[in-house]
Design brief:
- Pfam families: Cytochrom_C.
- InterPro entries: Cyt_c-like_dom, Cyt_c-like_dom_sf, Cytochrome_c_Peroxidase/MauG, WD40/YVTN_repeat-like_dom_sf.
- Keywords: Heme, Iron, Metal-binding, Signal.
- It comes from Sorangium atrum.
- Strands 17, 18, 19, 20 and 21 form a five-stranded antiparallel beta sheet that branches. A four-stranded antiparallel beta sheet has the order 1-2-3-4, with no helix packed on it. The chain has a four-stranded antiparallel beta sheet with strand order 5-6-7-8, with no helix packed on it.
- By secondary structure, it is an alpha+beta fold.
- The protein has a domain of about 100 residues: Cytochrome Bc1 Complex, Chain D, domain 2.
- The protein is globular.
Length: about 625
């Protein structure tokens, strides 16, 4: 395949008319799929910001499934809280299944014959759909279900949850869960591997090997990329560490492919103009990578998984890799990059042989179809050996793309209300290729990447979340040095990222959209009595926790010296359990560590008088916030 590069970001396409009502829509014979229809033209740019009546959630990726018999495509639509079933044989919409408001459907997996399962990311449930009758059955599972895996040998469905629950459901939709484990938080995808399960963690890109008895028997992480140490003739000594595992999918024959980001560990000097981007991909702070993890050739047990090689799979082009699909023969993969609105189609062998970050370009046998003019891509799946389906969030549709040469040959439109939103596009886009990072690169799904960046001369700074009503927590940054939103955009988006400052209307629209990003749904405490005791401690005036962490956002918005070196902004405690590591420099790996030497002592809450059991109670309560 010859490498091809797309044009810059173009204006988005015209919207499909709104569809009223909540009933199942069926039998769209007037929605053709052929070589000439369904590829919309670009409209004239409107200087006023386009704002969706219903704010679309941040992109999560991985919402498209093609059934094994290639009869149906199932598209979960988190923007419209619905599930679309497309008949691929007759090339038409088979049905639109409405969900409850804010269900935000995510991962889709095929179940027993004629059924699929869909995780409702904010609905706290999994729906099982009979494709023949289009009937849905809803099962509560955990507050924030993320990954799904169906084991045909046992007829069990495994659900990985952001709160750390790993729940197993039986074939009986009316039965309670078969098993619920409590693992580390931030679980993402789950893959069946023999008698064991492989479970990824989102921000750390860690892969947990969970044995049949429920114990974690191994932890695997992609290794760091150190050009100067690994490659002859490389002058660059900057180190990149694995981060943000957007999607982990099974490989035919065993093992997984994980598409993730790699983030700069080396100090960023200076923390000023252009410090986040460069025309040389090796000088950018973030780039795309794919890590392949396979069983050892002589062994079949999942705990014998090993990395294919150190530094494998870097992609030197593109931004925000939210999805990956594996070809039926397991020889190729397609990586969807929502920020640059493109695909990278590559043989797996090429990824395992060399690292694209070395050349900052594609290899001769890799291709890069540009999707942008057709819409905003969020998911990809193979449809046969050499065909790809790409799900578009706006306008809603499924695009057909050749995996051989990247040619687009038709789109099936999905009816639905417009969710066109300039603020959403700004958060996820790279401004027509001008930026090598997006806002969502460091704030995936509107939260944060778990990274501690070393900004010079400021020093280490932990990424802060932008979810849960961030505007109410001004001033911004750990130093509290940015007292208004325009100043924040001038410093970060313009000065550091290399973007251009939006005008007043667009800036207001962007701030308003950011404030709609919700905090993660919280899991119930493992010990509710301990959490209740911890709440009493938290509100005890002698401890003074609630002196600074007060009000709806649990911050007084002050910049205070709590014994950690200098005054820092008091952060909101909402959703704190999902934001390890802690403190401005990430010195506390866990909430318990925050009450250790790096926490500032009694200047940061008078907690030295507490017994270890009381600290446990206090942590149990804080984890519920």
């Amino acid at each position: 395949m010859k490498a091809r590069f797309g044009a810059g970001l173009t204006a988005l396409v015209a919207m499909i008319a709104a569809i009223a009502g909540c009933t199942v829509l069926d039998g769209y014979d007037d929605l053709p799929w052929d070589d000439t229809q369904g590829l919309p033209d670009s409209p004239t740019r409107d200087p006023s910001p386009k704002v969706s009546a219903v704010p679309p959630p941040p992109i999560s990726g991985g919402t498209l499934l093609v059934t094994t018999d290639k009869a149906f495509a199932i598209a979960a639509d988190p923007d419209r809280d619905r599930i679309s079933i497309v008949d691929l044989v007759r090339s038409r919409v088979h049905g639109i299944l409405p969900l409850e408001k804010d269900d935000e459907p995510g991962r889709v997996v095929e179940g027993a014959a004629g059924s699929v399962h869909v995780a409702l990311r904010r609905g706290g449930a999994v729906v099982t759909i009979d494709l023949a009758t289009k009937k849905m059955h809803r099962r509560p599972v955990c507050p924030a279900p993320r990954g799904l895996a169906y084991d045909a040998s046992t007829d069990l469905l495994h659900v990985a949850c952001a709160g750390g629950e790993l729940v197993t459901l039986s074939w009986d939709v009316a039965a309670p869960p078969v098993r619920e484990l409590r693992l580390d938080g931030d679980l993402r995808d789950v893959v069946v591997e023999g008698d064991s399960l492989l479970v990824s963690r989102f921000r750390s890109a860690e892969l947990l090997v969970v044995a049949k008895d429920g114990t974690v028997v191994e932890r695997i992480r992609p290794l760091a990329y150190i050009p100067g140490a690994l490659y002859d003739g490389a002058n660059d000594t900057r180190e990149f560490a694995p981060a943000v595992a957007w999607r982990t999918v099974p490989l035919p024959g065993g093992g997984v492919a994980m598409v993730h980001q790699r983030a700069l560990v080396t100090p960023i000097e200076p923390a000023g103009a252009g410090s986040y981007y460069s025309t040389d991909c090796r000088q950018s702070v973030i780039h795309t990578a794919v890590t392949v993890t396979r069983p050892l050739p002589s062994e079949g047990h999942p705990s014998d998984l090993v990395l294919s090689r150190h530094g494998v799979g870097g992609i030197g082009v593109g931004v925000l890799p939210v999805d990956i699909a594996v070809s039926p023969d397991g020889l190729s993969v397609a990586i969807l990059q929502a920020g640059s609105r493109d695909l990278v189609v590559t043989p797996l062998e090429t990824l395992e042989r060399e690292d694209g970050i070395e050349r900052c370009a594609l290899a001769p046998d890799q291709d890069r179809p540009f999707i942008g003019p057709s819409g905003e891509p969020i998911a990809v799946s193979y449809f046969g050996a050499n065909k790809l389906l790409v799900q578009l969030r706006e306008p809603p549709g499924i695009l057909k793309v050749s995996a051989l040469d990247g040619v687009k040959f038709g789109m099936i439109e999905l009816p639905g209300e417009s969710r066109l939103d300039d603020a959403h596009a700004l958060f996820h886009g790279n401004r027509g290729g001008a930026l090598s990072v997006t806002c969502a690169s460091c704030h995936p799904e509107g939260h944060e990447d778990g990274r501690v960046w070393n900004f010079q001369p400021a020093g280490p700074r932990r990424t802060q979340s932008v979810s849960g009503g961030v505007l109410a927590t001004m001033p911004f940054h750990w130093d509290g040095d940015l007292g208004y939103f325009t100043g924040f955009m001038e410093e970060v988006f313009v000065k550091r990222m290399g973007g251009s400052l939006p005008d007043g209307e667009h800036l207001d629209a962007f701030a308003a959209w950011l404030d709609t990003i919700k905090a993660l749904p919280r899991s119930k405490p493992a010990d509710e009595d301990a959490a209740a005791r911890g709440e009493a401690l938290f509100n005890d005036p002698t401890l003074a926790c609630a002196t600074c962490h007060s009000g709806e956002t649990l911050t007084n918005n002050q910049t205070v010296d709590v014994g950690t070196g200098k005054p820092f902004q008091v952060p909101s405690l909402r959703g704190l359990a999902a934001r390890a590591p802690y403190m401005h420099d990430g010195c506390a790996a866990t909430l318990h560590d925050r009450f250790g030497p790096c926490g500032g002592g009694d200047r940061h809450g008078v907690t030295s008088v507490l017994a270890p059991a009381q600290i446990d109670d206090l942590v149990a309560y804080i984890e519920t916030l």
